[in-house]
C-alpha cells in the first residue's frame, strides 16, 4: 500500500505540472488564437502529455518510453480531451470549467490507464 501511495503522489505532482502546461496553453489557444474549446483542449493536452508521458516513464513507473506507448496514451487521453472540449463547446461551458473537469478526469483515468495498461510490464 505504501508503494501505491508513493506512486500516486508522484503521479499527482507530475499531474500538477502537466496541468499547468495544459491550462496555460488552453487559455492562449482559446483567447488569443480564437480556437474552439475542443481543438484547444486537445492541442493543449498533446503538449502537456508529451511532458507528462516521459516524466512518468522515467520517474513514476520507471519503465522505458516508446513511440507506441506514447501514441496509445495520446490516443486514449486525447480522445477524452477532445470529447470534453466538444461538449463544453456545445453546452457553452466556461473554459475554466472545461480544463478543471478534464484535469480531474485525466488524473483519475490517466493513473489507472498508465498503471494497468501502459506500464504494466514493469511489475511482471
From TrEMBL:
Assigned GO CC terms: plasma membrane
Domain GtrA/DPMS transmembrane per the UniProt entry, residue ranges: 10-112
Subcellular localization: Membrane
Domain of life: Bacteria
Keywords tagged on the record: Membrane, Transmembrane, Transmembrane helix, Transport
Membrane topology (UniProt): Multi-pass membrane protein
Any one biological process term the GO annotation gives: polysaccharide biosynthetic process
Transmembrane intervals: 12-30, 42-61, 68-87, 93-113
The keyword Cell wall biogenesis/degradation is assigned to this record: no
Family from the record: Belongs to the gtrA family.
Function (record text): Involved in O antigen modification. Involved in the translocation of bactoprenol-linked glucose across the cytoplasmic membrane.
Protein name stated in the entry: Bactoprenol-linked glucose translocase
Amino acid at each position: 500500500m505504501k508503494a501505491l501511495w508513493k506512486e500516486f503522489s508522484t503521479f499527482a505532482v507530475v499531474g500538477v505540472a502537466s496541468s499547468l502546461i495544459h491550462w496555460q496553453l488552453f487559455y492562449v489557444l482559446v483567447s488569443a488564437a480564437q480556437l474552439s474549446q475542443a481543438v484547444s483542449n486537445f492541442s493543449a493536452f498533446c503538449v502537456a502529455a508529451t511532458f507528462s508521458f516521459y516524466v512518468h516513464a522515467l520517474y513514476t513507473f520507471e519503465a522505458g518510453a516508446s513511440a507506441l506507448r506514447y501514441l496509445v496514451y495520446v490516443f486514449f487521453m486525447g480522445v477524452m480531451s477532445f470529447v470534453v472540449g466538444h461538449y463544453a463547446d456545445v453546452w457553452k461551458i466556461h473554459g475554466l470549467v472545461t480544463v478543471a473537469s478534464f484535469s480531474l478526469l485525466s488524473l483519475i483515468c490517466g493513473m489507472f490507464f498508465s498503471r494497468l495498461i501502459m506500464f504494466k510490464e514493469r511489475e511482471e
